[in-house]
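User: Structure please.
Assistant: Input sequence and predicted structure:
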Amino acid sequence: MGTLLSFLAGRILNALPVFLLKRLLPTKEVAHQIELRLRSENAIVVQKSDVPSIRIFLEITNLSSLELRLDRVLIELWFGQPTLDMTIMQRPILRPHSTLTDLLAVHYLSSVQQRQIEQFEAVQPGFGQIHMYMLAYFDSKVGPIEVKKTIERNRI
């Protein structure tokens, strides 16, 4: 029964004119209904091969009744200090009440960045934290939506 009501509410919202929809669903309210997080506990992967890189797997859940299009995600990653910036430029559509689980950010590491990460990993556990600051932008029927998220972890 709850799924049917949610479906009908989404249909009604999509049928409303944009000016009315903007009054019913302010962008700040919709932003609170979007969850941005790491996909799992092992979502940050540092590859120390011939071409060192870092991969971050993200998950976005759209709890709103609106269809959203991801515009971009900006990521600033700190290993004790600012280490690198990444951008995800994929533009998938997030249907209402759905989750996107295959969002991947890849950054190829310079020798300075690689050294910073190695020094951070060599320090005693619990000494520092990894900080990840994310800023995601979405396009929607009610206008552009911005979601900020900070994640802190002790280890990769």
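Strands lie at 34-38, 44-47, 53-62, 68-79, 82-88, 93-94, 98-108, 130-140, 145-153.
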